[in-house]
Model the fold of this input.
Amino acid sequence: MSTETPAEKAKHRVRQLIWLYFWLLLVEGALRKWALPRFSNPLLLVRDPVMLGIYFYAIKAQVFPRNVWAVSLWIIGILSAVAILGSPLFPYLPAKALVEVTAYGFRSNFLHLPLIFVMASVFDEEDVKKFGWWILFVMIPIGLLMAAQFKALPDSFINRTAGLGEAEQLTAGGGKIRPPGPFSFISGPVFYMSVAAAFLTYGTLTRTVYKNWLLIGAATALVIGIAVSGSKSSVASVLLVVAAVAVILIVRPRAVNRFGWTLVIVVIGAIVISRLPIFKEGLQILSDRFTSAAEAAETTVIRGTIDRVISGFTEGLGHIDKVPLFGYGLGIGTNVGGRILIGRPAFLLAENEWSRVLAESGAIFGLAFLIWRTLLTFQLGRLSFIALKRGNLLPILLFSSGFVMLLNGQLGQPTTLGFAVILNGLCLAATRPRVPDSSATAPPIADQSVAKPLPRRSVFASRIHGPEIGAEHSNGSADR
Done:
C-alpha cells in the first residue's frame, strides 16, 4: 500500500508531465513535418494541454508559483489582454478573430513562463543532471540527422517544411539548406546545440557525471552540427557558453587543470573531425555567410554582429513614440496572428521581439513586460553566480545557454517559447542542491539568495508575496 500523500502524488505527476513537455518539444517538429503534416497547425499547440495539466497538479501539490514574479506576470498579462479594447484596430477586426489573436498572444507571452518556477519547485541539481544525460545522448542522432539533411537536396523529403505547403527550408548558400534536424526550423538546433554545449562543458569539467563515450559522441555530433548548420546564431550561442567557461576559470581557478586536459582532447578531436569532407564543406558555407553579411553591411564580422545584437533592443525603443499608448493588440504581431487575420503566416508589426512586444502592448504594458523579462534574466544570472561561488558550475553554464531566449527570444514562435521555459527552468532548478531528506527545508527560489538561510517570513509578508517556492515541499527524483 502506498504511503505517499496526495500532495506527493501530485508532485510526482508534475515531474512526469514536465518530462512529457520536454519530449514533445523535441518531437513536435518531426510530427508537423513528417508524421502528421495535415495537422501541422493544431500541433503548434501540442504542449499546451500538458502545460495546463502541470498547472493543475502543481496547484494540488501546492507548488504553483505565487511569488512576486508570477503575480506580477499575471497582472501584466491580464492588463495587456484587456488593452486590446483601446487598440485603433479594435473597431475593424471581427470579434472571433480578435478573441483568437488575443488568446494566442496571451498564451505566447504569459501562459507558459510560470513553468520556469514550477520546474524549480519540483526539480533540483541532481534532476537537472538527468536532463543533461538525455540532452547529450539525443545530440548524437540530431547531429547525424543534420549532416544527412545538409547532404540531401533542398526539396527532398528529409528537408520538407512543416505542413503540406511547397515551401523549402532557409538556404545557407551553395545549394544547401540550413538543416533543422527534427525541428521545424533552424532555430530549434541552435537552441539545442547551445544547451548541449553547456552540459558537455559541465561533463568535461566534472569528470564523474557522464561517461566518456557519451561526452565524445555528443561533442563530435555538436561540432558537426555547428559546421553544417549554416547559421551564424549557432556559432554565437555556443560562444556564449565558452564565455561562461571563462567566468568559471576566473571564479573557480581549481577547474583550470581539468579544463586544460579537456582542451587538449577537444583540439585533437577537432583536428580529426576537420578532415571530414562534410565538415570542410559546411564550414566554408558558414564562413561565406559571415563574410557576405559583413560586406553587405559594409563593416567587419564582429562589428556587424554587435550592431545586430544592439539593434534588437534599441529598434523598438526608438519607434515607441509612433505606437499607440496601449499598442495595436496582444498577439497581432505573431506569425499565428498574421495567419488568423490575413490567412497566411506573417509578422504584421515587426519580426524583432522587443519591437513586436512594444507594438502589440504599447509603451506601458509592453515596456512593463520587457522590464519583467530583463529583471528575471538578471536574477537568474545572480543566482547562477552565487551557485558558482559555492562550487556549482552547472547553473552558470545553463544560464549562458538560455538567457538570450528569455531576454529577447521570439516567444510567439512555439519552439523558442518551449526552449525559453525549459532552459531557464533547468537553470533555476540547478541552483538548488540535493536535499538529503524529506524533512529538510529546500532553499528559496528566484526571489531570495540561496547562499544563506533566511529568517521566517511574517504572516503579512506571506499574504503579499505568497509562500516561498520550495519552502513547503521536499525534493524528489528525477518554428515556426
